[in-house]
User: What shape does this take?
Amino acid sequence: MEKKRIKLNSGREKSLLRRHVWLFSGAIAEVAGEPQPGETVDIVDAAGKFLARAAWSPESQLAARIWTFDEKEEIDDAFFAERIRRAIEFRRFLKFDDPKGGCRLIYSEADQLPGLVVDRYGDFLVVQFLSAGMEFHRERIIAQLAEITGAKGIYERSDVHVRAREGLPERTGLVYGVQPPNPLIIEEAGARYAVDIRHGQKSGFYFDQRSSREAVAALATGRTILNAFSYTGAFAVATLRAGAAHVINIDSSAPALAQAAHNLEMNRIGPERYENRVADVFTELRRFTEEGRRFDMVILDPPKFIESQRALVRGCRAYQDIARLGYRLLNPGGVLVNFSCSGLMTPELFQKITADAAVEAGVHPLLIRHLEQSPDHPVSLAVPEGFYLKGLITRLPE
Ligand code: SAH
Assistant: This one.
């Protein structure tokens, strides 16, 4: 049988030599051996020299994702077991291995498993298979995950639109063990959170904001807080537990806010200390401004406003608009915490947009610190695209 092999155009091996793991279709000169979607192929340079072993994604612009640069490494059970063990060891090193807590256990390219995302919620795992290669190996990945982690159950949440780009249908459901309870309860920094892993956003909880919750809680004592785009109120729970005076949560999702109320109650926070509003943040912030409302802290954690290069200018304008509205709502000495989870937004650009928003609002804040995704979402230096979440903490003078 002819070896399944991808030959590159001359000069197109450069990114692979720098250990980047994505191969774009434009780099390919020749495909030999009729590989099927997800099948393993060898990638060779124009002279036929081995470069890497990869998964074939014919439907995607991202035509191959690299498994290994080592010609001796086969893509088998042992390969997946080793990568999974390495990812778990890293979270243990971070001390993100509290059995009652949760974390991102496997983060795709950063863990050299491109297209696989696994979140751990206590004894349960939620998996997403996002590429043809991961889909091809899904049975052995599930088996290895179950064996290595000892999870009670593994639930699939491959209901994300990126699968369509790979020609894969969306899929959800239990793939191993017993059904996880609904809600699942996890602990983080002494707080308890109820998570609906079946219907919640992402896999149910924003683990990527863990380090930001800690940073923001440290500044929250005695403050009145507006928590915009609150989802299930994780920032509210963290800040109120740290002694914040009062929090208003705003989100357009009624189920998310119902879960927020449950989370606050579970953490014994009395109803006099919070208010949940199902509303559009832009409208509500404008209304508050007109009403002359003021807060000591405003948190803005919106969804991704920039999905593609084409949406960049419009997305930047949206980030700037809410930051301006946020600044206008602050008391003297007030703190703005604003985030962008758009990968196409650089930290420099985000800081500039925030600075422009301050000028528009007529305020003169100081930058206290930069925030970023929690370390259980690490970034491979060879694949900087994995860095997506950035935030700023700024403060107005007294
Ligand atoms: N801060 C949250 C995560 C926020 S995710 C946490 O730490 O857990 C973004 C949230 O914004 C989602 O819950 C979504 O329902 C909400 N959302 C999106 N657009 C909105 C809008 N225009 N107005 C209000 N909420 C919105």
Q: What stands out?
A: The pocket of S-adenosyl-L-homocysteine is lined by residues 201, 206, 209, 229-232, 234-235, 250-253, 256, 280-282, 301-303 (CB under 6 Å).
